[in-house]
Design goal:
The chain is mainly beta. The protein is built from no helices and 28 strands. The strands form seven sheets. A four-stranded antiparallel β-sheet has the order 3-2-1-28, with no helix packed on it. Strand 14 and strand 15 (174-181) form a beta hairpin. The model has no long low-confidence stretch (mean pLDDT 97).
C-alpha cells in the first residue's frame, strides 16, 4: 500500500479552520485521515518550499499576505502582512529562492526573497494596469504568478485580459519583457505549459475558454481557442484550475457552475474528449498525485473532495471516491 500526503488550502468563511491534510491510498484511489495542519485565516493558496517550509496565503482582520509554516509542527513562523485583501496565488522559485505573490484585489505581484531560515523579505512589487469589458474587469486583477519553462516569470491579469512576462534577477527584481493580450472579456486566470516548454495553455475564467499558445523566449502567440463547457450551457460558469498530463497529451480544466472537469486531447488540435461531474459544487483546484494515476478535486461549496483514476492512454477519468470531507477546499497540493 502506497500512501501520498496531500494538502488542502481553504476559505475560513464558514466551517474551515485553515490548512488540512489527508493521505491518498494509491492502491484504492481513496483519501483517508483528514487532519487540521495549521490554523490560519483564508489560506486559499499554498506552495511548498524547502526544509518543510510551506508558504500560504494569510488573512488577519483587515490585512492580507503570506504566512511561513513549519509543516512538521504546524507552527506559523512568520506572517508578511499589509493592509488590504489577501493574494490569490503563490509561486515558489527554487533556483533563485523567491516566492511570487499575485494579488487579485490589488492587481499587484510581490516578489519575496527566501532567507536561509525560510523567512521572507519583500524585494519588489509590480502594479499591473488596465481593465476589460466584463463587470469583474473594472481594474487589473492578477490571478497567477509563476515560472515559465525558461525561468522567466509569467503573470496572468484577469482584469486587463493580458499575460505579462518578466525577466527576474537573482535578487528578485522584475523587468517586463513581453505582453500578450487575449480577446476582450476572456478573463484569463491560470496558465500551464507542455513538458517541452513550447506550448502554453491559458484558461479563461470569465469566458470558460481554453486557449492554446505557442511560447518562445517570453513571447506568446495564439494558436487555438476552445470552450470548456457545452454550447447549450446558459447558467453561470467560471473556469478555475488547469493541469497538463506529464506526457503533454492531455489537459484538464475545472468548471465552477457546470461542476465538472473538462478533459482535452492535445496531441493535435485541442479536442474535448470528456466532461465528468466533480460530485460537488464549485470545484476550484485539483492536482495529480506523484504518478498522475489519480486526480484529486476539491469542491468549495459542498465541503467535499473527489478522487479520479486517470487512464494514461486515453486521458479519461473514472471516479474512485466522492464525499471525502474537507471544508471549503480551494487548493490541492501534493507534497
Amino acid at each position: 500500500m502506497a500512501i501520498e500526503k496531500v494538502l488542502f488550502g481553504t476559505y475560513t468563511k464558514r466551517v474551515s479552520k485553515g490548512i488540512y491534510s489527508a493521505d491518498l491510498d494509491t492502491s484504492l484511489g481513496e483519501l483517508k485521515n483528514a487532519a487540521l495542519v495549521a490554523e490560519l485565516g483564508n489560506p486559499t493558496y499554498t506552495t511548498m518550499g524547502e526544509n518543510n517550509h510551506l508558504y500560504a496565503v494569510d488573512k488577519k482582520t483587515d490585512e492580507g499576505g503570506v504566512a511561513v509554516i513549519d509543516l512538521k509542527t504546524g507552527k506559523i513562523e512568520q506572517e508578511v502582512l499589509s493592509a488590504g485583501a489577501s493574494p490569490a496565488y503563490l509561486g515558489f522559485d527554487q533556483a533563485r529562492q523567491l516566492v511570487y505573490s499575485g494579488n487579485y484585489h490589488k492587481g499587484t505581484v510581490d516578489v519575496l526573497k527566501v532567507g536561509a531560515d525560510g523567512q521572507l523579505t519583500l524585494t519588489d512589487t509590480y502594479q499591473s494596469e488596465g481593465s476589460g469589458p466584463r463587470d469583474e474587469q473594472d481594474q487589473a486583477r492578477v490571478h497567477f504568478a509563476n515560472l515559465t519553462p525558461d525561468n522567466r516569470l509569467v503573470v496572468v491579469d484577469l482584469g486587463a485580459d493580458k499575460v505579462l512576462t518578466f525577466d527576474v534577477t537573482e535578487t528578485g527584481k522584475l523587468q517586463l519583457v513581453a505582453t500578450f493580450k487575449t480577446e476582450p472579456g476572456f478573463g484569463p486566470r491560470h496558465v500551464r505549459f507542455s513538458p517541452d516548454g513550447q506550448t502554453a495553455y491559458l484558461l479563461g475564467e470569465l469566458s470558460s475558454k481554453l486557449s492554446v499558445l505557442h511560447y518562445a523566449a517570453g513571447e506568446f502567440t495564439l494558436q487555438q481557442t476552445v470552450s470548456t463547457i457545452p454550447a447549450d450551457w446558459t447558467a453561470h460558469n467560471g473556469a478555475a484550475a488547469l493541469r497538463v498530463s506529464p506526457d503533454g497529451k492531455f489537459v484538464y480544466a475545472s468548471n465552477r457552475g457546470h461542476n465538472s472537469v473538462a478533459v482535452f486531447d492535445v496531441t493535435g488540435d485541442a479536442q474535448l474528449i470528456q466532461w465528468i461531474s466533480t460530485e460537488g459544487e464549485f470545484p476550484r483546484d485539483m492536482a495529480f498525485n506523484a504518478t498522475s494515476d489519480y486526480l484529486v478535486v476539491g469542491n468549495q461549496e459542498t465541503d467535499n473532495v473527489s478522487v479520479y483514476a486517470r487512464d494514461s492512454k486515453t486521458g479519461e477519468l473514472r471516479l474512485t471516491q466522492k464525499d471525502f470531507a474537507i471544508p471549503e477546499s480551494v487548493r490541492v497540493e501534493f507534497i
